[in-house]
Amino acid sequence: NAGVTQTPKFRILKIGQSMTLQCTQDMNHNYMYWYRQDPGMGLKLIYYSVGAGITDKGEVPNGYNVSRSTTEDFPLRLELAAPSQTSVYFCASSWETSSSYNEQFFGPGTRLTVL
Amino acid sequence: AQSVTQLGSHVSVSEGALVLLRCNYSSSVPPYLFWYVQYPNQGLQLLLKYTSAATLVKGINGFEAEFKKSETSFHLTKPSAHMSDAAEYFCAVSDNTDKLIFGTGTRLQVFP
Fold first, then answer.
1. Least Cα separation, residue A16 to chain B (angstroms)
2. DSSP characters for B58-112?
3. Tens digit of each residue's pLDDT (9 = 90 or more) over A80-108
4. Residue A101 has what pLDDT?
């Protein structure tokens, strides 16, 4: 199993450009998440999904959009890139469960710079 | 709302010394607690997790953590640091909706 894969690894965008960060998992997990990591701030949840066709906002959703058409894929869209979106983005997935102790598996991250 | 506080954004130890990384949580319900490790330029990996089965939890690479309800703490320890332990460590708490709340992280440096 490849686990959680993310593309691209690095990207530089100009202000106002748009892009999609790709995330795919091959573990048949229903739950998927997008985080951003800024120095000294830990990880902040952007959006998450509990299954195909279902998405919900996290702590910092402004400026981003997501979709979940399949179990495997959970792309994150930036429509109008701003310097404040310079960050490292991580995708994660976990098992569906009625409790909350299941591990999240993380991808290797996408380092995005907006100039 | 649940939260975690990691005391000390940077910790430095000598190789062979005790590692102690501190985490305190805030929760109105019995929490699920996690420690993740992030090596340079990589994603996060689970070190260990507390799910109420035992208060002393053993994880990978010789790390362990003890859940202390009276102190609302879940500190991470390792008896003897290795150079390979140099990384950033994150404490996280579950808010019972399958979302994790992460602390701000502690960067561990190990000196020879």
1. 27
2. E-GGG-EEEEEGGGTEEEEEESS--GGG-EEEEEEEE-SSS-EEE---EEEEEE-
3. 999 999 999 999 999 865 455 678 899 99
4. 64
